Amino acid sequence: MYHQFVKDILLEYEKIRDFEHKELEKRKKHVYSLVPRIKAIDEEIGKTGMLVAKTILSNPQNYEQSLRYIKEKMDRLKQEKAILLTENNFPLHYMELNYQCSTCKDTGFGPDGEKCSCFKQRLINRAYEMSNMSRVLEKENFQTFNLELFSDSKYKDEELTPKQNMQNILSICEGFVINFDQKPKENLFFYGATGLGKTFMCNCIAKALLDKGKIVIYQTAFKILEILEDYKFNNQRTPDIETSYQLLFDCDLLIIDDLGTELNNSFTNTEIFNIINSRLVQGKKILISTNLSPIEIANIYSHRVSSRIFGEFTILKFYGKDLRWER
């Protein structure tokens, strides 16, 4: 599946480049028809550029003066072209190639050969499409969030009513999205019983950040441990496995749902700590959702894990009646 994703995405980039080259040729023809002198300048610039190689080859010991002359000539031609474009109401970059992504120039790869963020986002989008997550996010987002589902009556010993509490949580989560790039050390920890809106709120945040072009990985703790086990112990490690593993560390936001449902042992404790600690050190954000209370988290996980969570996360408690029976 991974290889097919990559193949499809590279084909998309190729189509984008072909389209932009054709559009550039249309713009050139349009300008040349209105201002023939610009065509003559472009042809002269092309010929002048070829002179550089010829000059170096013909006089390798003393070519600096000739190169200075060529450079001055090129500068004059470019200046004349810029003036003509401006005088004829064309933007200065009108005759340059447009890129949908200026970082990778629509190739999918940066100067260092690594996958561009736009390439990674396309991979994530494919994954969401395959998992039907995009359909869920269309239904569960900040625009469809209904505060009226929550009771405005006092609940047990809580100071705020469930509705007031959820209003506070909603405000914090919206701020988390708005200030995502400005507050690199902000992380969220949702806890409470099932049916109180934790997963819905996770989906709200995921959708809002995906719409901003951020790379979001949303996995249950159980699935994350499967990915880790595949990466650590599978002798036939595939590109799918390597990508799934690396994205746990590289994505802009990692959402870990249902923390505590995975099998708990020394391996899971170590790996959960490794993911959380590595992301915190890198300034990569995390959102954790669990049905467990902070005390239960402290009892199940090592001190290293619980101290990182309670020291580096904003703790948000969900409470009230099970909303699954209220709809």
Plain-language structure description:
Helix content is about 60%, strand content about 5%. It starts with a helix and ends in a 10-residue tail after the last strand. α2 runs antiparallel to α3 and α8 (about 220-235) packs across α9. The chain has a five-stranded parallel β-sheet with strand order 2-3-4-1-5, with helices on both faces. The chain folds into two domains: about 10-85; about 130-325, P-loop containing nucleotide triphosphate hydrolases (Rossmann fold), CATH 3.40.50. The model has no long low-confidence stretch (mean pLDDT about 90). The chain is elongated, with a radius of gyration of 28 Å. By secondary structure, the chain is an alpha/beta fold. It contains twelve helices and five strands. It comes from Thermotalea metallivorans.
Concise overview:
With 327 residues, the chain is an alpha/beta fold.
What attributes does this structure have?
327 residues, alpha/beta, Rossmann fold, 2 domains, five-stranded parallel sheet, 12 helices, 5 strands, 7% strand
Give the count of structural domains: 2
What structural category characterises the helix and strand content?
alpha/beta
Note poorly predicted spans.
none
Distance between the termini: 38 Å
Shape: elongated
Instruction: Please write the CATH class name of the largest domain.
Output: Alpha Beta
- Please tell me how large the radius of gyration is: 28 Å
- Helix fraction by DSSP (H/I, runs of at least 4): 55-70%
The CATH architecture of the largest domain is: 3-Layer(aba) Sandwich
So, the CATH homologous superfamily of the largest domain?
P-loop containing nucleotide triphosphate hydrolases
Arithmetic mean of pLDDT: 88
Strand fraction: 5-15%
- CATH fold category name of the largest domain: Rossmann fold
* Sheet with the most strands, sense and barrel status: 5 strands, parallel
Instruction: Name the helix and strand elements from N-terminus to C-terminus, one letter apiece.
Output: HHHHHHEHEHHEHEHHE
Total helical elements: 12
InterPro entries: AAA+_ATPase, Chromosome_initiator_DnaA-like, DnaA_dom, P-loop_NTPase
GO biological process, one term: DNA replication
Domain AAA+ ATPase: 184-316
Family: Belongs to the DnaA family.
